[in-house]
Design a protein that fits this description.
157 residues; alpha/beta; Rossmann fold; globular
Length: 157
């Protein structure tokens, strides 16, 4: 599965992004990979202070990495339209019992118009899905969570 996610990150992450966001970064596994494939600043957000402590040790002294403790449903510490690429791996499965649309709205809010949001999720029966959401498409900036004017591409592995 990691190999396929690496391929998807190569495919969907812009070649020269100003900043990349990973929400649910945990100990920084994917942040480290993103740093290898793109020469840019990476920002990680995680709800767990324990996981962030591991990530802080992993990236100690690296000026390209910024880490924040926070909840995907309320990232008011991040500016609107900031990131060229936003990535989440296995986060939304934890939001099933709460309003996960809040998380989607926040991802859209912090991602630049024309940027890409990539979500990777496990689904029942052990399969996994990767979803990519270009935040705005040719129809203009009226993209919604309900699919109107929003291009959704799904890749199964």
């Amino acid at each position: 599965m990691d190999k396929y996610i690496c391929e998807l990150l190569q495919k969907w992450c812009p070649e020269q992004p100003e900043e990349i966001l990973e929400v649910g970064c945990g100990a920084g596994y994917w942040l480290e990979y993103l740093l290898k494939i793109r020469k840019t600043i990476v920002v990680g957000v995680d709800i767990s202070p324990d996981m962030l402590a591991v990530a802080e040790r992993r990236f100690s002294g690296d000026p390209r990495v910024r880490l924040y403790e926070g909840d995907i449903r309320n990232m008011d510490f991040l500016e609107n339209d900031r990131f060229d690429f936003t990535f989440c791996a296995w986060i939304f499965q934890y939001l099933v019992r709460v309003n996960f649309r809040e998380g989607l709205r926040e991802l859209k809010r912090v991602t630049k118009p024309g940027g890409v949001i990539m979500l990777t999720e496990n689904i029942p029966h052990g399969d996994a899905q990767a979803f990519t959401f270009p935040t705005y498409v040719q129809e203009g900036p009226k993209a919604t969570m309900h699919g109107q004017n929003l291009h959704i591409e799904r890749e199964r592995y």
